Amino acid sequence: MPWVEKYRPVYLDDIVGNTDTVERLKVIAEDGNMPHIIISGMPGIGKTTSIHCLAHALLGDAYREGVLELNASDERGIDVVRNKIKLFAQRKVTLPPGRHKIIILDEADSMTAGAQQALRRTMEIYSNTTRFALACNMSNKIIEPIQSRCAILRYSKLRDAEVLKRLKEICEIEKVQYNDEGLAALIFTAEGDMRQAINNLQSTWSGFGFVSQDNVFKICDQPHPIVVRAMVKACQKGDVDGALSRIHSLWEQGYSAVDIVTTVFRVVKGMDDLPEYTKLEFIRVSGGVSLRKGPR
Ligand SMILES: Nc1ncnc2c1ncn2[C@@H]1O[C@H](COP(=O)(O)OP(=O)(O)OP(=O)(O)O)[C@@H](O)[C@H]1O
Ligand SMILES: [Mg+2]
After folding, report:
1. In angstroms, what is the span from residue 44 Cα to ligand 2's centroid?
2. Across-strand partners of 239?
3. Ranges for the AAA+ ATPase domain (predicted)?
């Protein structure tokens, strides 16, 4: 079983990070009167999970009957909104007192504007029995009228320490052998995306039997930050040949310009041993590189 599923939180208390927002969800769960909500944010940070945890907290055993989930792989055109959603909203189910049926629209930003338009009326007509929970990466892809009917919760990327803590817990339970650099590499490559961190942990462990920095970068297929770091250091010293040879070695390994430049950007951001001014200049230059397509 993939670890991302095995370790998917079931209770709101188990969700890592975004404490304030998760607190709000807990208040909603306790109060029982759920507003329509939109949770937006980057991939892999617990949006879908949070909605399911909330639904569990609200409905308990009635979860199976009381929840309709539609995600991007389901047909979600105007007809579905008119028929499937309407049918579910009209259906009688026994719920704990004061609770509502919940319709989960995952990856709602992939719904067409037409379907969203059809939704706005439905949301209103059935709101005494049915509440909507939408998850999306970009809330601006949700049409204004729906936004204005919902409480909007924004999730931010998870902090390194939060991802690290979770990875360590999983390593403990799965008896994964690792060293600290290995976990640091997982965190570097995941960039606050818990799903990616856990997936890469599992791939590295099952592929190599040990989570070290080198093994992680073999799995993640990103330019090795150590090489990039050495390149930046060479630049700092004015050693142009040294810097070029490192870039060439990455290029020969087949990494694209985009891979290399984005890694330079991220490595520089984390290099606390550079003087502030130099660091900002490096960030400015690597951030401003325009990446033209075509042969080199
Ligand atoms: N905040 C978190 N706390 C604990 N585990 C998490 C968290 N966020 C993500 N995970 C792990 O990552 C997996 C994916 O999370 P989830 O499906 O909630 O992401 P998402 O935010 O909905 O992403 P997407 O935008 O790609 O749909 C979960 O099964 C869980 O294992
Ligand atoms: Mg999701």
Report:
1. 7
2. none
3. 33-159
